[in-house]
Amino acid sequence: MDSEKQYIELYEQTREMLCQHSAEPLNILRGQAFEDFRRLGFPTQKVERYKYTDVSEAFAPNYGLNLSRLDIPVNPYEVFKCDVPNLSTSLYFMVNDQFYDKILPTAALPDGVFVGSLCEAAKKHPELINKYYGTLARTHKDAINALNTMLCQDGLFVYVPKGVVVERPVQVVNVLRSDVDLMVNRRVLVILEDGAIIKLLFCDHAIDDRDFLTTQVAEVYVGENAHLEMYDLEETHVKNHRFSNLYCDQQRYSTAVLDSITLHNGLTRNRADVTLSGEYAETTLNGLVIADKQQRVDNNTLIDHRVPHCQSNELYKYVLDDQTVCAFAGRVLVRKDAQQTISQETNANLVGSKEARIYTQPMLEIYADDVKCSHGSTVGQLGDQAMFYMRQRGIPYDEARMLLKFAFAADVLQTIQLDALRDRLHYLVDKRFRGELSKCEGCKMCK
Amino acid sequence: MLEIKNLHASINGKEILKGINLVINDGEVHAVMGTNGAGKSTLSNVIVGNPAYEVTEGEIIFNGKNLLEMKPEERAQEGIFLSFQQPVEIPGVSMTNFMRAALNAKRKHQGLEPLPAGDFLKLMREKRKIVELDSKLANRSVNEGFSGGEKKRNEIFQMAMLEPTFSILDETDSGLDVDALRIVAEGFNKLRTPQTSAMVITHYQRLLDYLKPDIVHVLIDGRIIKTGGPELAMEIEEKGFEQFIVTR
Amino acid sequence: MEEKNSFVREVAEKKYEYGFTTDVQTEIIEKGLSEDVVRLISQKKGEPDWLLEFRLKAFHYWESQEQPEWGHLQMPDIDYQAISYYADPTKKAADDGKSKEIDPELMKTFDKLGIPLEERLALSGTAVDAVMDSVSVKTTFREKLKEKGIIFCSISEAVKEHPELVRQYLGSVVPYRDNYFAALNSAVFSDGSFVYIPKGVRCPMELSTYFRINARGTGQFERTLIVCDDDAYVSYLEGCTAPMRDENQLHAAIVEIVVMENAEVKYSTVQNWYPGDKDGKGGVLNLVTKRGHLRGANSRLSWTQVETGSAITWKYPSCILSGDGSQAEFYSVAVTNNYQQADTGTKMIHIGKNTKSTIISKGISAGKSQNSYRGLVKVSAKADGARNYSSCDSLLLGSECGAHTFPYMDVHNDTAVVEHEATTSKISEEQLMYCNQRGIPTEEAVSLIVNGYAKEVINKLPMEFAVEAQKLLGVSLEGTVG
Question: Of C172, C187, C197, C444, whose Cβ has the fewest other Cβ atoms within 10 Å?
Fold first, then answer.
């Protein structure tokens, strides 16, 4: 397939417009990214990390792009009733790749904290953006990074200065809104300086019945002794195609919880690469996938232990039904000097239908000797005994199945440290299993 | 209440029940005694509709309805309860959610509205007392991390919640110490009414000392070979099952 | 700590005992590979046309392919034109072609390797096919086995004496297009063993093939074919060694196994090819395709391997579970040290209903070696009721080695239960301390623990092999183990 061609041409023809409606630090990397993309092309499924997703096919259709940054007529506060009602957050919106700044939360953020447009930030803090932008998400090896870097014009910037604690969780709702099939190239840069603490919640929604193709590249820096919780919840529809690359770098004594939850989607490909660069850093990488119909979800993770005394925990659970095809590939790399590493990786999959298919591939690659590493992976069904026990108590077959599926998924939800979010997710997952969430297919908004 | 006619059943193609006939009337407690592998647990599993067992012949009529045509949950909603010999652990499903689902399914079957949450929790508290079940246990996942005795008490607790008309206690005495046995048996007795019946499966007299069955059956090799009053159980306690095997 | 290091060093510096060469006149054909060479090999072996055709097809396919970059391996460049593809140590330079006598030097070699070829001296209950370089030297107990209808001979002889059987099964499990090295082997394979167990026969003794590379500048390309007919049983052992040479020698073998209804095959390997010296110079490149087809209902196949040798090991003894109710097992211990590299594991392809597979893999890495488990469990849409359990553990004996686990699972069936678990750790300090406290010196404690660690697999081996395998683990054994 020759899917690359249209993007190469697009860039060649619109280079000036792209730059004009963006900011200098983003523009600087565009040329190299373009060269890299032209050289790499889309990865075939022979490329190990793209084994389970046909990238070319997803990028083949002709999507519109909003390169001249026309205002999208929408007030997200009106169309979007908060999905997590009891969670008092500082609520922000991204409409496609644009930060929505017409209305902002009333409660002020602590001094020095920035949540807003990446381009705005490039004007106010060019030194910060120049220093960090594009350093984790390198373009020379990954075509999605290259494509995103060459086409993205804006995105989100979150900055928490040294020692600042942001008490109130920051919620960013990504709203996909368009009257034509649309490609969105969004960029996210999160910087926690030493000792900073923040909780971030991203929610992906698509409010129009159009085909969307999103690339999102997120770079996250967690400084010494900083603590990050980041939850990424996707509740889009079957016409959404999401390619998300998340890179997180952690310094000494930092902790990060990175959760990715796919409740409803079309095609989702999430890559998460965590680098433990400072000793005694700890990372938790979790995922929950609920997929049915022809949905596809492919989570591909790498935890890179570069230094001694770090710890990583990884838990991904999938509940599959109908004709869904999903994949999990999780690589844990323990480098030569990363002694005293503790790492645990678990992937469990519940296959509920004849046509569903799961590929699972946990990987341990270890070059240090004083380590405790393990991984486990299972594929199975709901237990016959438990099913019968429940039915003997009068619980109908479907209800019993649902309760057991819910119990299976609950493991991942238990790791969520935001109480209100956890409760809400319990509710949403329950709703999802009852088939109510997937009904929103094509409708304006699921209330 | 329950009538079993010429019941034959097998598991994995092997015939276990070879023609059972049994009538249990309202208010009666029947004891079924027999050696290991005689088919006692098969009988209870077939009555509640465990899909692992296949009924090859015969019928079971429960309050005028053909039980064999019903799904396991329908039988339960009709008022049949099995206290399992080995209750399964169901991690991740809380006792509260589990019981609420079960109780509301039954109420729906009876044409009633779901019980409001407050009333439901109150009911849980009341019924727990019957078997002295700790509130902490009720907050855990179903049977997960319960000791053997706690699991059995939990079974009787669920019975109290669901108020079945016909209960089967499948070796509920196994693995219980004297105190736990007393609690479980007394709990069961508190739930008895003239309209409810039960079938008690056991090897031993000691549970029957508490439960006082009206009728005792001896099940050997898939058939009931002798039926009598409570004295039959005493006789077995004294002389064992060998006498029956010989006379057969 | 120092003590432990000295132990690790000792393991790493352990001498290769089988590194001698046999001084015997060997007929070696010119180096290089071409269609003419393939024809020459076939001609030397006096093969029928169909086999020559098979070889040529494989050769042309091989020519059209590139050597793949598989696995977690740093493969040295292989110059396929610098290898001689046929070496026959049984031919005297001026052979009259009639002598049936085996050169006493060859007999001595196998004696020295602990594989006596005289039946009266043989290990009890084991029949041996001894292969040196490209040729089978001798197969023992043939007559005795023949009484039961069992065929056990070199594959060259089988081609002549049982062409219909060989033709039916050769390439039926591993087609020549399977992979690069399978194509190479199919083109130039020299000798190897052929086993046929007729219906209902339980093979009364262990069958064994001993492979020895001797000649310089040659590769070994043996081919083994085992057919176990309905209700039959056989246990088969494979051992191998090579002299110490500072060049890399290529070993690209194929093993094909066909298991019919209710039949059972146990295949055990103790692989001890020359691993190279402690600086990583020389050693055998062991690139092997082994596969069993569980064709019949309720058939069983078990692979057990102890891999201690070779500079590079690339092999994945696999099972295709076609027969309903068939069961497959893979038990493996792979030890690497110095600069050895191993990328080994298995594939379990579930096709039939109610099929079951078990994978137990134990990797032990020392020195500067890299040791990877790579496996695939595939459950097809039709394989209702399939079960798999995999457990892959790695033990690290040094800070410069690597241990890796790459399991792939592809499940396309909602009745399948597939479980994989893996751990990687070093020898536990607590266990060492416990042993020390009981008066056991550290090196002995390490040896005890390593053996305990591998025991689950070693126990699957036939007795004689188990003893050798334990010895090979490079650790002395005290007391009662095994």
Answer: C172
CA A379 to CA A374: how far, in whole Å?
17
Does residue A1 surpass a pLDDT of 90?
Answer: no
Per-domain boundaries in chain C: 8-428+462-472
- The alpha carbon of B125 is separated from its chain's Cα centroid by a whole number of angstroms, namely 23
Q: Give the pLDDT confidence score for residue C117 in this predicted structure.
A: 66
The CATH number that domain B2-247 falls under is 3.40.50.300
| A contact test, residue of B70, B84, B90 with most A CBs within 10 A | B90
Distance, CA of A147 to CA of A149 (rounded, Å): 5
Q: Which chains touch B (3 or more CB pairs under 8 A)?
A: A
pLDDT for A385-408, tens place per residue?
A: 899 999 999 999 989 998 999 999
Answer yes or no: do A389 and B51 touch at CB < 8 A: no
State the Cα–Cα distance between residues A341 and C415, nearest whole angstrom. Answer: 37
Residue C73 CA: distances (Å) to CA of A154, A280, C182, C344, C368: 42, 31, 18, 11, 13
Q: Which amino acid is at A94?
A: M
**pLDDT of amino acid C475:** 40
Domain residue spans in chain B?
Answer: 2-247
Chain B residues with beta carbon closer than 8 angstroms to that of A393: 76, 81, 98, 102, 158, 162
Min Cα distance A413 → chain B (Å) is 11
Q: What pLDDT is stored for residue B42 in this prediction?
A: 92
Interface TM-score (ipTM) > 0.85: no
- Residue A376 main-chain phi, psi, to 5 deg: -145, 150
In angstroms, rounded to a whole number, what is the distance separating the alpha carbons of residues C105 and A129? 77
Could you tell me the pTM of the whole model? 0.83
The total number of residues shown for chain A amounts to 447
Mean pLDDT for the stretch of residues A89-95:
89
Ordered DSSP codes for A167-233: -SPEEEEEEE--SS-EEEEEEEEEEE-TT-EEEEEEEEEE-SSS-EEEEEEEEEEE-TT-EEEEEEE
Classify the C-alpha dihedral C294-C298-C299-C301 as positive or negative.
positive
Residue numbers of B between 162 and 181 with CB closer than 8 Å to A: 162
**Interface membership of A402 toward B (CB under 8 Å):** no
Question: What is the DSSP-derived secondary structure letter of residue A278?
Answer: S
Number of helical (H) and strand (E) elements in chain A, helices listed first: 10, 19
Residue pair C57/C176 in contact by the 8 Å Cβ criterion: yes
B125 at A interface, C-beta within 8 A: no
Of C171 and B132, the one with more pLDDT: C171
Whether the pLDDT of residue B220 is over 80: the answer is yes
